[in-house]
Queue: 2 jobs
Job 1
Amino acid sequence: MDKLLNLKEFEVEPKNSSEAALRRWRKLVTIVRNPRRRFRFIANLEKRSEAEKQKLKIKEKIRVALLVQKAALQFMDAAGPLDYKLTNEVREANFEIEPDELNSIVHGHDIKRLKLHGGVEGIARKVTVSLDEGVRSDNVSTRQKIYGFNRYTEKPPKTFWMFVWDALQDLTLIILMICAVISIGVGLATEGWPKGMYDGAGIILSIILVVLVTSISDYRQFLQFRDLDREKKKISVQVTRHGRRQQISIYDLVVGDIVHLGIGDQVPADGLFISGYSLQIDESSLTGEIDPVDIYEQNPFLLSGTKVRDGSAKMLVTAVGMRTEWGKLMETLNEAGEDETPLQVKLNGVATIIGKIGLAFAVLTFVVLTVRFLIEKALKNEFTNWSSTDALTLLNYFAIAVTIIVVAIPEGLPLAVTLSLAFAMKQLMDERALVRHLSACETMGSASCICTDKTGTLTTNYMVVNKIWICEKIKDIGGNESKILDELEISERLFSIFLRAIFLNSSAEVVRDEQGSKSLLGTPTETALLEFGLLLGGDHDAQRRQIKILKVEPFNSNRKKMSVLVAFPEGGIQAFCKGAPEIVLRMCDKVVDYSGELVILSEERVRNIMDVINGFASEALRTLCLAVRDVDETCRENSIPDSGYAFIAVVGIKDPVRPGVKEAVETFLAAGITVRMVTGDNINTAKAIAKECGILTADGKAIEGPEFSSEPLDEMRDIIPKIQVMARSKPSDKLNFVTNLRNMFGDVVAVTGDGTNDAPALRQSDIGLAMGIAGTEVAKENADVIVMDDNFATILNVAKWGRAVYINIQKFVQFQLTVNVVALVINFVSACISGSVPLTAVQLLWVNMIMDTLGALALATEPPNDALMKRPPVPRVANFITKPIWRNIIGQSIYQLIVLGVLNFDGKQLLRLTGSDATSVLNTVIFNSFVFCQLFNEINSREIEKINIFQGMFNSRIFVAVMVSTVAFQVVIVEYLGTFASTVPLSWQLWVLCILIGSVSLIVAVILKCIPVERAVVEPKHHDGYDALPSGPGLA
């Protein structure tokens, strides 16, 4: 049916669509009543192009400035004297450096001028901050006054009256207003006050009502999108204030703050490197250069908006907000909006095609009415006699034709998609899922596969040490940490080595709040180990104070280990390493025995350790190995050895499966969505968790990432359908897996990720899902949806709402097209046969509001039901307007046309209407019956194939509110506003008749749904090994 409507040109990709495709469909949309409203949420390609050019200019300016400054500094022996003067404002605030001076040092990478100020310590003194204690809370407002706020210039938000103005830009409404003014003028001249102004005033009042309802709906959407946009921009940063490490909003950051940076963080402001290890910064967002920049004491300059690729550091903030280059860039971002969704584009196509048909009908109706009028005048020999009444009649014909265009062009179709998506996104935000891109919510309805992480998504991410192997003994940890040492019979020396391996090789920290209470800060794995060490009686702070850290290699998904090089005050250097068992074990050639002595790590010991590791893993424990090595004093500070270590211990960490995960997996499988686990953990741990979650079945395959990536393509094609678990997966393995699922099998793939290295897979997937708690800023930036509670069950809600959006829009299309067909045909046929139309301009405007704004509110915002997850996903290539929808449209249209036609041409005899007002009563009955047919058909449209249309109806408060308000206003129009709406009050018998005529459409719907229009096709098994799910009326 989509082919019949020729919608092929109205197709775009849901993600990263080409500019050619975006421009192609825009050119084809020629029939638009109100471009400002229709395209409000559509990307402005011209503005986007201008913004991109401006962005590139700023980037090039920054890049050239940096290159020139660096080149110039190489030929300068010394910087000039500090000849700038402090303003009174800065001096009175007790600062010793101007904001512009701070900016010039960092922007220009002026290391020599920095040294003239005394280096980082000198700058800290001049902004009156201690590098250890950080900013005092009572000093924040002063800093914001002198150095600015960490906010970017944004356009002022649109007011409600701006939406009213946009709604008034509708060309057809403007024409109707002109007609109404002329009608009032002619009417007053011919019929006097007040009768002469009724028709024109009725049209004006209807237009005011339409504009107000439209504006209120649009303004509510705007507020929803504004709330979502604010939520997207919420970024938290770790700072030291008052000597305590704490988390604050990026907007509360001030010059002088001490910021802690880690892998995947976005640098929140311009600043200077204080201390850190192996810090590498990706400056491509600012300069376009893809090579990472090493940051250290001799190159301490950090720019806002850049990303931490590796390492960790503390930085001193020197510039915030619009004083940074990133602030200037931010002005150009999102200037032109985001890409439109496939449904928005497709329904723009439907609206265009139907609009052309409606325009043709409107012109024909006007021509037929005018020709009949002229013929009648000619037959009465009055062709040369023209009066103001004749002019008013022709004007009325023209107004009716314009109103038919208002009804015929379904302006609300593409806007209903935006309304439905906005509503779904708002509801999902309440359910802890933040949708960053409109198309993601829509695409999730077609998802056929989810590749999920294990840690923190399927599991709680609250970790505790559950078992330990040390000195060839295994010990269960059950809250008796203090007795473990006695039971294991290890020496003080080994205990000291073990605690050093925990405390010194850790990125976690012990922090204290205002009351002095201790808490742990860091990743769940790190805090679990640190907590275990503290429970054993170790003193973390004392251990850290006694040593000097020479170098750190932080953990990442490629290395799968963390290493540290430390120097002791009594002399000697040691390297500590912890990480994945296969990585650490390969680096060891010795093992520490119970007395703390080193003994050879024999093959037999290696096999025993591997048996322990596999045993821990089979109990669903995360396994980490700890190792140590003495390092020669001559070892360079930037070199941590990768061999020659002594094996210390195996730690088994328990991370329980989240409640509700198994049920969520079962629901996904019932919905035809395959769930696959992709994790960096040990394969035995992964298999144990996958079985507990219901992901790994007897027929499923578990494979390690490197093994998968080494397979030839033909082999991959055979094994991919069976893979349910991929363990020891590197980011490249994950990307490879996702790419092949999409390209080989046409799957619509959703991928979860939390790390920086997950970014490529999140970008490549159809729907990227980043974790809100454990996820890095880089992962969130590349995701389409942020799962704010890191819970797998939340993804189920996203899928439900994605499917609900799709089916809700189908319901609305069915409803609106039925109204379109009936309104067009009844007016055209009546004009051709009787020379008049039963529905006036005012009545058609009311009908337009019912089927457009109110219909969209009622049908496009229905919440999802459980039945949605008991049917397979809708393929992307599926026709949007399905055969059952066409069946319902055609069937209901035929019924309504027959009933209204009979009333129009033989209603007076059937209803025994007599008297001077018989025509007015009949026309009111036709109008009233027509409205009630639409109201009952709106209820019918709640289900496209299911017979029970009332199920869950009262759960949708918006639907019920729209129905009640529509009925109430219809009563008011008929009984009390007849002067303006060309109606007369009806008897209770006629009211009952109108309601009965409308309600018969419920019976018609039942009969229609019993007519088979699609034969069920028996499909082969799904490529994942699951049987294809049945489909049909019972599962709609």
Note: Residues 1015-1036 have pLDDT under 50 and may be disordered.
Job 2
Amino acid sequence: MTGGRIRARIRRSQLHTFACLKPRSNETDEPHTVEGPGYSRIVHCNESHMHQKPPLQYRSNYISTTRYSIISFVPKAFFEQFRRVANIYFLVAAICSLFPVSPFKPVSMIAPMAFVLGVSMLKEGLEDWRRFMQDMKVNSRKASMHITDGIFSNKHWKNIRVGDVVKVEKDKFFPADLLLLSSSYEDGLCYVETMNLDGETNLKVKRSLESTLCLDSEECFKDFKGLIKCEDPNPSLYTFVGNLEYERQIYPLEPAHILLRDSKLRNTAYVYGVVIFTGHDTKVMQNSMEAPSKRSSIEKKMDYIIYLLLAALMVISLISSLGFFILTKYKMPEWWYLRPDQAETCYDPENAFASGMCHAMAALMLYGYLIPISLYVSIEMVKFLQAIFINQDIDMYDEETGVTADARTSNLNEELGQVDTILSDKTGTLTCNQMDFLKCSIAGIAYGVQASEVELAAAKQMALDLQDNSMEDAADYPVPEIELKTVVTCKDKEGNKPCIKGFSFEDSRLMEGNWMKESHAEEILLFFRILSLCHTAVPEYNEQTGKLTYEAESPDEGTFLIAAREFGFEFVKRTQSSIFVNEKYPDAAKPIQREYKILNLLDFTSKRKRMSVILRDEEGQIFVLCKGADSIIFERLAKHGRVHEENTTRHLSEFGDNGLRTLALAYKKLEEKDYVAWDNEFIKAKTAIGGDREGMLEKVSDMMEKDFILVGATAVEDRLQRGVAQCIDKLAQAGLKIWVLTGDKVETAINIGFACSLLRQEMKQIFISSTITDPSGKDEKKTSLLLVPEKAVKESIINQMTNATQMIKLAKDPHAAFALIIDGKTLTYALEDDMKFQFLGLAVECASVICCRVSPKQKGLVTRLVKEGTKRTTLAIGDGANDVGMIQEADIGVGISGVEGMQAVMASDFSIAQFRFLESLLIVHGHWCYKRIAQMICYFIYKNIAFGLTFFYFEAATAFSGQTIYYDWYMILFNVFLTSMPVIALGVFEQDVSSDICLQFPALYQQGPQNLFFNWYRILGWMANGVQASLTIFFCNVLSFYASAFSSNGRSPDKAVMGTTMFTCIIWVVNCQIALTMTQFTWIQYIFIWGSIGSWYLFLVAYGMLSPTWSEEVYMLYVEVLAPSKSFWATTLLVTITCNIPYFFHSSMMRCFYPMDHHVIQEIKYYKKDMEDKHLWTREQSKARQSVKTGFSVRVESKIRQLKGRVKRRASSLAIMGSMIGRTEPAAAAAVDDLL
């Protein structure tokens, strides 16, 4: 591999980049102290058999993310089922049905309960089986492991043990936590990508001990032996303490020597390592938590509804028992036909209290139909079917990877519609880590005509505003040409991928060597050379494309090198001391390779915010080339180096307003004697031993990085994952708050915030820091946390949060928006009990929250704080193992099923291929599922109350005899078959609006977080509807048959006729009620509703034709008695209409006088007003957006306000000028055109 050979000659550990901050460990270093609690692990290298028995037996490398095991499934599943209060009641009732006091046959109670529990447990088992299969995919990955005598063989990850020697090849994941022994590079370096651990995509450099560099082939491990004593398993990703005993020497081990599980080997052919931690002992698994059992807020609220229904059941049972006690004691002796002298215990007037207690038990079972036993199983079935539709949604299918959405658990479908806060990872979730070089400023002149997304959207909106005459003051004046011209240029290419990845720059003045014709060609030359020379990247030859690719520490560096190559300055080679660039200068047709000697490299850090390289060109001239944040560069400019500062500052502001991330470029020339003097000081600082070494290096670097001459600035567009900005904008319009939790550095996170419009230029950024700085803000020197008492640091953080909160409260500008930015060190203090709620209060007041440099554990703690502190539903989304903690902690966990491992997906409740699909998952499916489940539960409560209370009324009318008016099979069929299918259709197919309308009117989503369809007002309303329906059904039937014959032959109705007629009325009433509830009808709904009604009549006919031995009182009841009776049909029609009139009237009143958003939209769509009146439709869309301060739309509106203000100011200036010099109106108009 050519690229590998190039890098193999570079001992990068000798460069300042890799050596200046920490000296390299060697044989003379003192070993660590690894004794005492927390340091008991002993690893016998290449002797894994030593760890198969206690006391050195450690956990295997097998991992599991399942909730159940074969042994624990039954007890755990039963525990989960009986967490539901209703199931406990039905269990007691089923046991009681075995005793003689039961009014029902045992089968009528036991069969439904067994069916409900069986279906629910089967569903849980199937979902956990899917998790098990995904675990098996990971555990079955293969790695090359030393077997014996220098022979390596592929083994499954799950079979790797502590002490094994493993060989990992390029682009493979590390199967366990390893000690790096050697690599394909001669100095033992390797490059590791830790995106799965900390979210960072820039490559980390790991190194082996010099004493193990010789172990660079398989044969070398034939006799390899060693002993590692180190820390016990812990979740800290950035620390490691241990010693290696090898060849009678002890060597200290550091984090730089450790390769962590789930990180990936990059740009290195292979490495050898010995296993230290396996399975759940690895640091990545230590950062994960046990898969929690989650319940939706609606399901939790259902418990309270069941409590209420149980209380109602107890009350009416008490009333019934009291009535039975009184009648038994005082009236039963008079009822001679009941033979009270031979009465049993349950009907003994001489022991009325015992009889009352027996009746109480019977009543608790008799009125049990108030509790909807089939509710849970129906919800389980509905959620399962909803999950299938989520999985098959074509709008959430990623064509590039072929990955669909996956509802890994269906328990939380409705919770998707109630999310208040989204906590998102950055890398791999929001970004695809791809930059595009778009614009630049050189010598005070802006270059680049390609428009950014913000520019394009703002100009489009301005054009629409002009067409609609919405710009009142600027209606007579044209829009600035630069914006419209840019839109036209880019509009034709919208949706087309740039021909060169990372380079979308368009400007003929700089391309094809035309820059040499510019008046300031020398400064342009310096600009291009800074791009091609000021970096730490390594070139690699791509055999497939025949071109060089660049492995850079950050995406920005790679983009700058691509841009430099396209401008004619191609970086081709790096050695230990030189950089080689092919320059198309002075002849654009004949590139010349030039060598630049690297003298020193001052690397970029989040504290320095700049990077410098000192090099010597072929003519012997020494240059210092620097790139960094504009605020840092500008304050280091020489007086004669500020010629272009004003114009460059203006360009930087414009670039930032357009959503681009910027860096300033500067340089200076050095005399030989000045460099030699500085280099001596630098060497002294670099070789210093002591705690102040870093400060000395920073001071010496400051001496060099000053008196620069400004060259220009770059503007790159951070390529988010496709559709991320639009998705975040839509989520913001839906009223959702978005927090970004990332392990990346502050600057990168802020840039991503700007790119996805969580941040914008005029937004006030609140930085909460644990570093104590000079209050004046002018002194850059910062005091180390080690030198400041912890109490002082905490007081400083509290003061910062207090001041920030006060500033937000005093803000008067209605457009004012605040963003909170905090790092991991500060978050450690902010999450402590004494200040975490103050931090949360401040964060809630801010429009955006970005937490940087956070550990996986901190992600989980922040998520828990938001969930418990706000009492609102939280959703966490991420793609790496470092996101598992927050995914499991949140109410809903969403995993991105990308290419970087499956840890996040395995721990998630839902998985999607890209962040943009979150829009459909929440705003469409979340909205639908919430309303469906809410309406479904309310309807269940209604129909069970309407049915169950008729038992009580009949009891009251029959002296609380404990008899039922309905035949046993009627009661069994009511919930299981006759009313179950329509409610399932409601839960699966109901749509108040279509998916397109959901996305066009995102504020509809707020019906879920505001809980408009499952609040106590609506629940109690449905209960009241059930009570009135039960009263109407019972008393209408009683009054219909009380004083009149039932049939033409004068026959009066008996209990069977009365019960069957009443039950027929119930079937009609509840099925017509669900028809009124539905807003969308398909053939499925028609079949289920009419099928349920028709199946009741078919049952009466078919069951009535059976032998009287089986059919009993129902024998030929329908054919011979009910069907011929006009009273039967009239009563059914009358009761059905009467019961549903109150709901119909209430719904009509609400739609007419208190319409909700979806009511208005439904009416507009029904009358096709959206087609006839576009302005009405657009106006309703604008109303259906939450008032937010983040998102792409807000950023565009801010841009439009700037443009409008600019037009107004220019128009006012021209008007004043015209009045002063007496111009005519046409002349003034012409002047306006010229100026704009």
Note: The CA atoms of residues 1142 and 1192 lie 46 Å apart.
